[in-house]
Amino acid sequence: MLAVVKPAADAALKKATRWAVLGPLFWLPQDRKVRLERYLRGREQFQKLSRADAVVVSFGKSGRTWLRVMVSRFYQVKHGLSERVLIGFDNMHLRNTAIPRLFFTHDNYLKDFTGHDSSKEDYYGRKVVLLVRHPADVAVSQYHQWKFRMRPGKKTINDYPEHGREVSIFDFVAKEQAGLAKVVEFMNGWAREMPRLGEPLVVRYEDMRKDPAEAMRRLTAFLGTPGTEEQIEEAVRFASFENMRKMETQRTFWLSGGRMVPKDRSNPQSFKTRRGKVGGWRDYFSEEEAAEIDRLVDATLEKGFGYRSDETTAAAAAS
Questions:
Q1: S-S: 227 plus which of 59, 105, 130, 231, CB 3.0-4.6 Å?
Q2: With contact defined as beta carbons under 8 Å apart, do 66 and 58 qualify?
Q3: In the chain, % of residues over pLDDT 70
């Protein structure tokens, strides 16, 4: 039972620890309190990274929860664990040491503790899985996260538009620093560091949607824990969009904190499992707005991920 409740207990302890430090310092200017909170969160991340067998890095809303549920189900079936246990760093490892300690991170606070803000030095020599998704799809999902799920404090420490402010979805994606620009900056930082990271495994959300079983085969082999086809297929089935939405509604993973709980069951946009559609970002914009977003991606995103129009055109021609 300890390993089941550990993620929620860890989250509560981290919050209590941060509050013990920040609470008495309420008189500090807001910018200093933000820097201090980011430093404390970075220290927590550094401690986990130091103990991890592998790290899964992604920008928020790139499909991490879906991947986490698939991985969780794979190890549940492989090692006979409860289906209510969502992997949270070392909770499954405590039940069976054959399961690796997986550190899932958005890489957003570590540099505030280590000071390595111009490189990925903290990840050198480590087994890294980089999960990426088309930056416009990510930015649109971030808009809904900001509007319907994100706590006011998180908006402040991560430099999102302030709580209660009215921002159109196009302005958020194309004009706010928290939108497309922030996603592209994240992806470019990792693209530039690829030669120094050894041989990380890059998993594209779009490829995972096309063939989730193959994505799981690659991932589990990379982690050194390959499984049977039956285990892979069950992981894919369990993490289907329909089943994940059902589990979120039923609060299946409530012991893992708020990551798999809707903020408002009457509002589909407030669910963690919202749409999952590849290229769905275009549904929210006019042709002119979508063309402007395409232009921004082409002008700012590094090559290599396959999301620029020159890369998609080349790939279509090659096929």
A1: 231
A2: no
A3: 82
212-222 helix and 64-79 helix, angle to the nearest 10 degrees: 70
**Strand, coil or helix: 14:** helix
Total-model pTM: 0.85
Give bridge partners of residue 105 from the DSSP assignment.
57
C-beta neighbour count of 249 within 10 angstroms: 13
Q: Which long-range contacts (CB under 8 A, 24 or more apart) does 23-32 make?
A: 30/156
Question: What DSSP string describes 28-85?
Answer: S-HHHHHHHHHHHHHHHHHHHHHH-SEEEEE-TTSSHHHHHHHHHHHHHHHHT--TT-
Q: Is 131 helix (H, G, I), strand (E, B) or coil?
A: strand
Q: Which residues contact 263 (CB under 8 A, 6 or more apart)?
A: 148, 149, 270
CB atoms closer than 10 angstroms to residue 319:
5
Reported as half-sphere exposure (CB side, CA atoms, 13 A), residue 202 has a value of 16
CA gap 193, 191 in Å, rounded: 5
Residue 75 three-state SS: helix
Residue 150 token pair: 């994100």
Residue of 16 and 90 predicted with greater confidence: 90
Give yes or no for a contact between 102 and 56, defined as CB atoms under 8 angstroms apart.
yes
Distances (CA, A) of 92 to 71, 73, 87, 115: 11, 11, 6, 31
182-193 and 287-300 helices, crossing angle to 10°: 30
Q: What is the mean pLDDT of residues 310-318?
A: 80
Per-residue confidence (pLDDT) for residue 312, from 0 to 100: 87
d(CA 174, CA 172): 6
Query: Which contiguous run of DSSP H or E holds residue 230?
Result: helix 229-238
**Gap between the Cα atoms of 137 and 277, Å rounded:** 8
